[in-house]
Design goal:
- The complex is a heterodimer of chains A (about 120) and B (about 110).
- In chain A, about 0% of the residues lie in helices and about 50% in strands.
- Chain A has about 120 residues and is mainly β.
- In chain A, the strands form two sheets. In chain A, strands 2, 4, 5, 6, 9, 10 and 11 form a seven-stranded mixed sheet that branches.
- The radius of gyration of chain A is 13 Å and the shape is globular.
- The N and C termini of chain A lie far apart (about 35 Å).
- The relative contact order of chain A is 0.33.
- By secondary structure, chain B is mainly beta.
- Helices cover about 0% and strands about 50% of the residues of chain B.
- Chain B has strands spanning about 5, 10-15, 20, 25, 30-40, 45-50, 55-60, 65-70, 75-80, 85-95, 100-105, 105-110.
- In chain B, the strands form three sheets. In chain B, strands 2, 5, 6, 10, 11 and 12 form a six-stranded mixed sheet that branches. In chain B, strands 3-9-8-7 form a four-stranded antiparallel sheet, with no helix packed on it. Chain B has a two-stranded antiparallel ribbon with strand order 1-4.
- The chains are: A mainly beta (about 120), B mainly beta (about 110).
- The interface of A and B includes residues 6, 97 and 113 of A.
């Protein structure tokens, strides 16, 4: 089946530094990728939708300058948390689909646990 | 706006017992409904989905769900739970624009041996 690889699985960084999270589709071309944030005991909150070769579409309330998303190829999207603060600590998950149609399956990465100290 | 409610935050069942996880949705048209499972520290795995047709949907790992339009529900069931089923379960509704799903807050399933 389709595989989405997310790296790193865990990262600890100091406050004020930036962290990059990668999301790769290993055996399919992902026209669309999604980035979610999951708080403890909470649901997945969609942060942004990225389409290959175009700017990401951010959900309301998500700071685009803080959470930089790049989808430069059909197999790779990156999320960079800039100037991270402890409140950015969370579980970040990406998902990918071949296209944006409703019946195009979503394939999820295993998530990245970010801890900002 | 679409929304999903999972009324049960935690559920504990004994191994071998039956299971039903509740999901209620709000959506302006015919919804596309999904159930996902998440193991600790992992991403989400699709258990089953409903787009149209037969309202009783079979999924992987012996799970099934029934779409009831009159009750705006899409409850997940399993006749006999295994200890390996302990995980977090999310109900989701879509599509929004561009295959965007709205997730419920999840139900944590604990299985007692």
């Amino acid at each position: 089946g389709a595989v989405v690889s997310q790296h790193p699985s865990r990262v600890i960084c100091k406050s004020g530094t930036s962290v990059k999270i990668e999301c790769r589709s290993l055996d399919f071309q992902a026209t669309t990728m999604f980035w979610y944030r999951q708080f403890p005991k909470k649901s997945l909150m969609l942060m942004a939708t990225s389409n290959e070769g175009s700017k990401a579409t951010y959900e309301q309330g998500v700071e685009k300058d803080k959470f930089l998303i790049n989808h430069a190829s059909l197999t790779l999207s990156t999320l960079t948390v800039t100037s991270a603060h402890p409140e950015d600590s969370s579980f970040y998950i990406c998902s990918a689909s071949e296209d944006a149609s409703y019946n195009s399956p979503l394939h999820f990465g295993n998530g990245t646990r970010l801890t900002v100290t | 706006a679409q929304s999903v409610t999972q009324p049960d935050i935690h559920i504990t069942v004994s191994e071998g017992a039956s299971l039903e996880l509740r999901c209620n949705y709000s959506y302006g048209a015919t919804p596309y409904l999904f159930w996902y499972v998440q193991s600790p520290g992992q991403g989400l795995q699709l258990l089953l989905k409903y787009f149209s047709g037969d309202t009783l949907v079979q999924g992987i790992k012996g799970f099934e769900a029934e779409f009831k339009r009159s009750q705006s529900s899409f409850n997940l069931r399993k006749p006999s739970v295994h200890w390996s089923d302990a995980a977090e379960y999310f109900c989701a509704v879509g599509p929004g624009v561009g295959n965007i799903l709205t997730f419920g807050t999840g139900t944590q399933l604990k299985v007692e041996l």
